[in-house]
Amino acid sequence: MKKMVLSILVKNTSGVLSRISGLFARRGYNIDSLTVSETENIKFSRMTIVVSGEDEVLEQIRKQVSKLVEVEELTVLKDGESVCRELILCKVAVGAESRQQVIAIADIFRAKIVDVSTDSLMIELTGNQAKLDAFVGLLEGFEIKELVRTGITGLTRGRADMLAGEFD
């Protein structure tokens, strides 16, 4: 099974998220990750959707999404041609003896300690999926009290701007 990352510029209107996610639900496609937010132009939002499947299924998804009225532009974010990142917040239980070990792991990954209490540390880390997976893997010997990941978001590299200046 392959993974495809779609960057979709959509009209910033109510119900657009529901209509796009509904397309996936109606056809039985699973969304691995979805992020959405307003862009530099308040008339538009950008969705980053990660899906998995065989080549034929992924192509069908791309074609069906691009036909939706609310979709202004659809780009497949390819390795090497785009930058994709994810954010993780992780609350780790620590005692006096383990606090420095957890801080050392966070330092190795250039993570930030964003909250400290007597019995836990909250760590913020941004990076690609492999980096975040490696970080969580190193924390396996510690008690992870809570963990949340944002899902992938990304843009194409360099001058490959999506619809640059067309919607001023």
Annotation keywords:
single chain; 168 residues; alpha+beta; Alpha-Beta Plaits; 2 domains; 5-stranded antiparallel β-sheet; 4-stranded antiparallel β-sheet; 4 helices; 9 strands; elongated; disordered C terminus
Overview of this structure, please?
- Strands 5, 6, 7, 8 and 9 form a 5-stranded antiparallel β-sheet that branches.
- Strand 6 and strand 7 form a beta hairpin.
- The chain has 4 helices and 9 strands.
- The termini are far apart.
- The model is unreliable at 162-168 (pLDDT under 50).
- The chain has 2 domains: 2-77, ACT domain (Alpha-Beta Plaits, 2-Layer Sandwich); 83-153, ACT-like. Chain A, domain 2 (Alpha-Beta Plaits, 2-Layer Sandwich), CATH 3.30.70.1150.
- It has helices spanning 16-27, 55-66, 99-108, 129-138; strands at 2-11, 31-38, 44-53, 71-77, 82-93, 112-116, 120-127, 144-149, 153-156.
- It has 168 residues and is of the alpha+beta class.
Helix/sheet category: alpha+beta
CATH homology superfamily name of the largest domain: ACT domain
Task: Summarize model confidence as the mean pLDDT.
Answer: 92
Using the 3D structure, state the CATH architecture of the largest domain: 2-Layer Sandwich
Strand content: 35-45%
Provide the domain count. Answer: 2
Morphology call: elongated
Please write the string of helix (H) and strand (E) elements.
EHEEHEEHEEHEE
